[in-house]
Amino acid sequence: MIAPAIFWFRRDLRLADHPALSAAVAAGAPLIPLFILDTGEGGDWRLGGASRWWLHESLAALSRDLKRLGAPLTLRRGEAASELLRLVEETGASAVYWSRVYEPWAMARDARIETALRERGVAAHGFAGALLAEPGSIRNAEGRPFRVFTPFWRALTERLQPAPPLPAPKRLRAAPAPASDRLEDWRLQPKAPDWATGLRESWRPGEAAAQRRLDDFLADGIDAYDRLRDFPAEDGASRLSPYLHWGEISPLQIWRAASAAPEEGRRAFLRELGWREFCHHLLAAHPDMPDAPLDPAFARFPWASDERALAAWKKGETGYPLVDAAMRQLWRTGFMHNRLRMIAASFLVKHLLLPWREGERWFWDTLVDADLANNSGNWQWVAGCGADAAPYFRIFNPVLQGAKFDAEGAFVRRFVPELARLDAKYIHKPWAAPERALREAGVTLGETYPRPIVDHAAARQRALAAFATIRGRPPL
To answer: Are residues 432 and 304 in the same domain?
Structure first.
C-alpha cells in the first residue's frame, strides 16, 4: 500500500497554475488536502476581521472544488507544526508538499517544520508560487537587496521569463479522509453585529471568482487603467489584490494574461504588480518592517497622541469629505481605492501627526487584501520612513485631491450621503459653502456632518516642523 502525501494549503487556495500541487499529483501518492488555521504564530499580525471573513468564503469555495475532484479538504486548527506532525502520525504520510510564504515568523516556522519532518523520515517539499521571483533573487550590483523601486522593477522584468501555465488537475487520487474540523465551527465570520453585509455585496472569494475578475478586467478595464485608476468613482481598479493575497490566482497567471493587452494600460498595471513584489522582497530583507521604520531617524519622530482624532479618522468623521468617503468605503466594502489609500494615510500621519503604525493596524483589520508586506511597505512609504519613500514635504491637500479626482463629487456622494445634495462647488469643502447652500442641501455643520478636525494649512506647517526635527531642515 502506498503511503499518502499531505498537501498543505496556505495562501495558495487554488488548483490551477500551482507548482506545488502539480508536483504532488505527479508523484502519484494518494493525497490528503489540508488547511491549518494556525493559532500559534503571527503575534500582533494574526488575521484581521475582514481577512477572516474572506478566508471562510475562500475555504468554502476550495472545499467544493476539491470535493468535485474526489479529495475532500481536511481542516485543522491549532499550532501549525503540532497539527501537521499529528496528522502525519495519524495517516502515516510519507511526504508533505506546500507553497512557500514569506512572513518572518512563517519562514522560521517552516524551517522548524521541515527539520521535524525529515527527522521522522518524512519528505518535505516547498515550492515557489506566491511571487514573480523568490525574495533574495533580485539584487543590485553590490549583491544587496534593492531599496528603490525603479531599478528593482527593471532588474525583475529583465530576468522574468514566465513558463506556460500549469493546468488544474482533472482528478485527485485521494487517501482515506482523516477527521476534520467543520469550517463553521471556526467562527471566522461575524455573528452579531454582522458587519460583513457590505463585504458580501462587494466580493465573491474563490478561484473561479478570481479568474472571472481577471477576465473582466482584461476585457473592459486594462485599456483605460492608466487613465482611470486615480478616479475613485470610476471602475478603474483591477480589484485583484485580495485574490492575489490568498493565492486564488497567481501573479504569473496575471502576468501572462495581461501580456496581450495594449501597452499603455499593461505597463501601468504590471508596475502595480511589481510594487507588490517589491514590498515582499523588502519584508524578506527587513523582517521588522511591520513594526520599525526602515529609516532609523524616524525612531525619534515627535508623533502625537490623540484618541479622538484617531477615532474620527477610523469612522470617516474628519470633516474632510474625500478622506471620510475613503474610510467609509474601507469599512463597508473591505477595500479602498489606491489613490485614496495614499490620501487617507497622508491625512493620518501628516495632518494628525498620528503614528503610521496606528493606520497600519486599522488597515490590517479592515482590508480584505490585508497583506503584511504591502501594508507595512505602503504605510512606511506614505510616512516617509520606508524604502523609496514619498518626500516628507508631500502632504496631500484633501480638497485639491477631491477637486482633481472626484470633481463632481460622485464618490463622496456615494459614501457620505449626508452631503449628497450639496453643490459640486462645495462638496469637498462644505465649511466654505454659504449658509443657504448648506440649508438647501440639508447639511448642518457640526450636527449632520462634522466640521474639519484640523485646519489644512496649520496642520501642514505643524507636520513640516515635525519632519524638520529629524531632517535638520527648516519648515518650508
So the answer is: yes
**Cα 227 off chain centre by:** 23
Residue 476 has what pLDDT? 39
Does residue 53 carry a catalytic annotation? no
pLDDT surpasses 50 at 383: yes
Domain that holds residue 45: 5-130
| Known active-site residue 275 | yes
C-alpha cell, 350: 501628516
Q: Are both 301 and 379 inside the same structural domain?
A: yes
Q: Model confidence at 6, in pLDDT bands (50, 70, 90)?
A: very high
Q: Residues 6 or more apart from 428 whose CB is under 8 A from it?
A: 320, 321, 322, 398, 399, 402, 403, 406, 409, 412
Asked if the structure places residue 466 within a domain, the reply is yes
Residues near 24 by beta carbon (within 8 Å), at least 6 away in sequence: 5, 7, 31, 95, 97, 125
Indicate whether 432 and 331 sit together in one domain.
yes
Same domain, 381 and 467: yes
List Cβ<8 Å contacts ≥24 apart for 270-274.
271/153, 272/238, 272/338, 273/132, 274/132, 274/149, 274/152, 274/153, 274/156, 274/157
Out of 8, 313, 362, 379, the active site residue is: 379
Residue 356: predicted pLDDT: 97
pTM: 0.96
**Residue 259: inside a domain, yes or no?**
yes
Q: Which of 285, 305, 340 is the last residue of a domain?
A: 285
Instruction: Indicate if 272 belongs to the active site.
Output: yes
**Is it the case that residue 474 has pLDDT exceeding 60?**
no
Tracing cell 519613500 back to the chain, one arrives at 389
CATH of the domain at 274: 1.25.40.80
Q: Is 140 considered catalytic here?
A: no
Q: Which of 79, 114, 264, 272 is catalytic?
A: 272
Whether 362 is a known active-site residue: answer no
pLDDT at 162: 79
Whether 105 is catalytic is no
**Which one is catalytic: 83, 98, 338, 378?**
338
Tell me how many domains the chain contains: 3
Q: Find cell 543590485 and name the residue.
A: 140
Q: Do 305 and 446 lie in a common domain?
A: yes
Q: Does the structure show a pLDDT above 70 at 475? A: no
Q: Identify the CATH number of the domain in which residue 122 sits.
A: 3.40.50.620
